[in-house]
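Quick entry between incubations.
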Amino acid sequence: MSPASPGARGRLAAAWRRAGDVDPLALALRLGLLTLVLDASLHWFERVPLAAVAAFGLLMPGAARQRALWAAVLALTVAPLAWNWPFSDNHAYLKALFPLAVLCALSCPDPRAALATSARLLVGGTFLFATLWKLVLSPDFLDGTFFRVTLLTDGRFANVAVLAGGLDADQWYANDDALHDTLAGEVPWEESGFVEPPELARLACVATVFTALVEAGIALAFLWPAGRGPSRARNPLLLLFALATYPVATVRGFGWLLMTLGVAQTAPRQRGARLAYLAAWFAVEAFRSVPWDDALVAALGAG
Amino acid sequence: MAMAPSRAGAGRRQQLLPWVAPALLAALAGLQIALAFGAHLSPWKGGGFGMFSTLDHGGFRGVEVTALLPEGERRLTVPPERVREMRRARTLPTRGALLGLARALAPQRPEARAVRVRVFRIAFEPGDLRPVRRPLAEVTWERPAQAPTRPPGEGP
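Done. Structure below.
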């Protein structure tokens, strides 16, 4: 039977539905281990042992619920933080906190509920501090400077600047040269030819407000007591964040960890949310691997 | 029936276990904020979730190393084997990191009496986005004075 036949399609749909019925703890442990296998560290001596231990946990029945395995994973995620200090990105710390949360949960009488609590607080804490930085500590976020400059200079945002910021690709590269020449002292800023279209300033303003609201909303929803008020918006907000952020800021490991924590904090009855997190986990990889923005720029002739 | 003290203690520990990782996250984030403001740690690093909040990151930080010579200052280049020290000084410009980089590059100009390391960031004016260089840290390493060499054959 071909994979496209109705029978095969039905079986695939049934398998997808069954994925939502999987115990949140089991699914979160597997997704977490898969993330650790695929989100490789830079150095081979950090990457190989962690991938081997995480793969063992994925492949051997029952291993994913063994505390010894998670203790090893914890050691192998903490060691790079010490070795690479102070270079590790923020999500490397979350990558080490996840196995710690699992290890603690597996020592509790109800590991699922314990991991759900840890995951909820880890997501809430992550976004609380992200919001604190953006709204209070950063000198250049709230006034829009961060997104204006990032859209104009960060290569990951170049296609967004071209698609929605009123720049063409040549202008984007000319701006890069203008900035470089000014910093090298070769030309005064006024004569550098640096261009910021009004559309780009508006786009930066929208990105600033959207990011601040969504991140603050996630912090509030995940730290609010369960089942009441803002806590009901947890899953929609975290999924909105993933779908709005990872097509542009392709920090795959962070996205995968957040989706894993999203799965872990779902209640067993929240089948739809679990499926949505699972789909978003795969979407994070698709956003990074599929050159959708290059294709869109080419199709619109914006480049 | 009252719960035995050891069982009650174990129960409390188990109630606290789910809070261990989140508490550590908060502690790390607090430390990162303290280091960012007290020692100019890049907000994008260190576990405080300051990424995508500020332009103060490696792309807009620079390190300048100069040898102080009798005829003036001369820029020193950072060879590939010293890039890690340079990145360390750029990310967390402590006095120790800057002195370490100065000492590592000093052999490039043995005649220099001192080596100066400056770390700066590029900030942008909110109006016209004009880039402005802002100093973060500076250290001057003085070359130790060499003991005068004694002519051969001269006793104490």
